[in-house]
Design goal:
With 507 residues, the chain is an alpha/beta fold. Helices cover 33% and strands 21% of the residues. It has 17 helices and 23 strands.
Length: 507
């Protein structure tokens, strides 16, 4: 039987955690049909994997490619790390479901520095329509979480209060419809607006229909204060019976890992994703504005910012590097104090200026308080936990983004395997592919085995490495040169082929 594609003589990492074995992989159409010694078999396309490893496509459990997944440069950044699937709809804010142009405009505007602007839609937009727009329009697969903040705004606008019973019913109906249209779970962003105005009861009620799909949360508190966020996570899981997945779980391992173990000992189902860096990235307004400024109501927030006194936190400024400042691009890549000095302003006044001029769109890279050897030790300990999955939290907006979108997975495959020994290659593939596929209910992904979708990565385990830095964040990773998505070569010799076979994955 001739194959469409034959990957010959590689060391196969099948995603089960079993030791790598030397084999060929035969593909017909979009499916792996044979794994073994396929001597003498013919194929239209042959990829020589001699001396290299073959693994299932990696799944980025937390990516902000909702608009920019269409961008070939973003696709290249992911594929060069072996990533073939983005899980989108993160942090409770994205483009669908939006039943009105106002909801779509809010989700776009508030998260402009994170998700960017959708290139072809302007709302209203259903989950079915959003997924149809991704299907076979990009080199990457996509899965989509229902964003709680978007749903809340669609029902309640910018209201800073708990939901009424009728409003909760309206949100619940949108969750149920979104799930029926192919969503892979529900996400919240409880430090963002309007998600932060929801109470635990609201979130637990909206989790009830998930039926095995995960509740994915940017918690109310991280780092040394993670106990507060995790207590709510556990409460939601108990009330609803939902499986919980915590986004970008970062901070001191001595605090964070006992919290996970405590929840697991209570019989609750919890996993999490992390990226291997000691700095974060988000919208400047979230970290700089006092909580009493109503960030969900942009016009009102800007009026208060323009005319009222603001008590800034001066200890914040040295930790902030500007990543996205539309109209003031000269400031991108500079620390906020350095940019303020260049503008001849005090840091607080410069922050006010760019928040006003960008209508709160400015983005930043943020150093964590635990940056240093202890923080690196925590990153390593958290990576090794069996509940861990990989998520870049990649943001591709702005002239000077965080390097994690270009390097997180390559760093995990390279630095954390070869240099630190935190994982074996076999363990890395479980953490970065098969475990995420199970968690998000992605059919046929995560394994190299007959009957599985042919998302296949060929890489040099000695050369795979991140090259992106805080100074040069858009530098592509090395060591991954050949990638198939649904049996179609999308990366050959390290270059995009131009094919767009990516599927919108539905559980």
């Amino acid at each position: 039987m001739p194959f469409d594609v034959l990957v010959k003589d590689g060391w196969v990492l099948d995603g089960t955690g079993s030791p790598a074995f030397r084999a060929d992989v035969g593909i017909i159409g979009d499916e792996i049909t044979a794994v073994g010694r396929l001597t003498g078999m013919e194929a239209a396309t042959v990829i020589d994997a001699t001396g290299r490893h073959v693994m299932p496509g990696l799944i980025d459990c937390h990516a902000h490619g909702d608009a920019l997944v269409y961008d070939p440069q973003v696709q290249l950044a992911a594929l060069r790390q072996g990533v073939t699937t983005f899980v989108l709809g993160q942090d409770g804010l994205s483009f669908a479901p939006a039943s009105t142009p106002e909801t779509f405009a809010y989700a776009t505007r508030y998260f402009a520095a994170v998700n960017g602007a959708h290139p072809s839609a302007d709302g209203p937009l259903s989950v079915r329509e959003l997924l149809a727009g991704y299907d076979r329009a990009t080199a990457l697969n996509t899965a989509y979480l229902l964003p709680h903040g978007t749903i809340r705004y669609d029902v309640m606008g910018a209201a800073e209060r708990t939901a009424t019973s009728d409003e909760l019913a309206g949100m619940l109906a949108r969750v149920e419809r979104g799930l029926s249209e192919g969503a892979a779970g529900l996400s919240t962003g409880l430090e963002y607006a309007p998600g932060r105005y929801a109470d635990t009861e609201e979130i637990a009620a909206l989790c009830a229909p998930l039926d095995g799909l995960p509740y994915v949360t940017h918690m109310r508190a991280y780092g040394a204060q993670a106990g507060k966020g995790m207590a709510e996570v556990a409460d939601i899981a108990r009330r609803s019976g939902v499986a919980v997945h915590v986004s970008h779980y970062h901070g001191p391992a001595s605090t964070l890992l006992p919290l996970v173990e405590g929840i697991r000992l209570d019989g609750l189902d919890i996993t999490f994703d992390t990226y291997p860096y000691l700095r974060g990235s988000t919208i400047l307004a979230m970290v700089a504005l006092p909580s009493w400024i109503p960030a969900a109501d942009t016009d009102r927030a800007l009026e208060m910012l323009r005319f009222g006194p603001v008590e800034w936190d001066p200890e914040l400024w040295p930790r902030v590097t500007l990543s996205h400042v539309p109209g003031e691009e000269w400031a991108e890549g500079l620390s906020l104090p350095a940019a303020a000095a260049e503008a001849g302003l005090e840091p607080g006044e410069f922050c006010r200026k760019i928040l006003l001029s960008t209508r709160l769109e400015a983005g930043c890279v943020l150093a964590r308080p635990d940056e240093g050897p202890e923080g690196e030790a925590s990153v390593r300990a958290i990576l090794r936990h069996p509940g861990h999955t990989g998520g870049s939290d990649g943001i591709y907006v702005g002239g000077h983004p965080h390097p994690r979108g270009y390097g997180a997975f390559a760093r995990m495959l390279g630095h954390h395997v070869r240099e630190t020994g935190d994982w074996t290659l076999e363990q890395a593939v479980v953490h970065l592919s098969s475990h995420p596929a199970r968690r998000f209910g992605l059919p046929g992904r995560g394994l190299i085995r007959p009957g599985q979708a042919a998302d296949v990565v060929v890489f040099d385990s000695e050369a795979v490495a991140d090259q992106a830095t805080y100074a040069a964040p858009r530098t592509l990773a090395t060591g991954v040169d050949d990638v198939l998505v649904s049996g179609v070569p999308v990366l050959a010799g390290g270059r995009l082929t131009g094919a767009t076979p990516g599927r919108a994955l539905r559980p």
